[in-house]
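Structure tokens
________________
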Amino acid sequence: MARIVLSASEPYTLLITPCHWVENKGVSNDYMIIAGAVVDYTYKQELLAFMLAYLNIPGMKSEYAAYTYERNSRLILQMREDFFEEKHFNISIHYNGIESFQHSNIMCGLSKTALLALRWHIEVGVNGMKLLDECGEQIGWFEHYCGSRSDMGNRYHSNQPYMQRWIVQKEKLDKSMREAGIPHSVERLVDFYIQDYE
């Protein structure tokens, strides 16, 4: 039903109440961000920076990982047995495409290929989205923060900065990689783009 009502958005975002982004949101050394996006606005531009995690395959350039994305992907679709991704070596991928209303999509998510290989799954509930291992133990989670800007530099008041990210326990990531027989290290890259408005 939610998929029909929000045909151009991620239905599960309705279950997540964003926290107000007012302070430094660092993570402890026991955790790492494996996917994230920050969006901010100037008077005539939208700025999107995103961070992805990928397997450090010898000879692979990090730019290839930056361009791994799913257009209009939704968690509800990824849960289907017949959903497949193009071949890649990313743990997280950039989602892009249309949305019904602002901040109604997950900008960076976890690759279905990686979830299957690491035997992880995403649980969605009233307390947000959690990343679980094969035993059902929580090993990570999704965070969503919204800022507020009302100064004159903001052309449209609906254009508010926000940050989304997936956080995972480093120890659990390492353990899942070993158990899956993946010998490569996990690297992260940051990329960005700027969209101009008229």
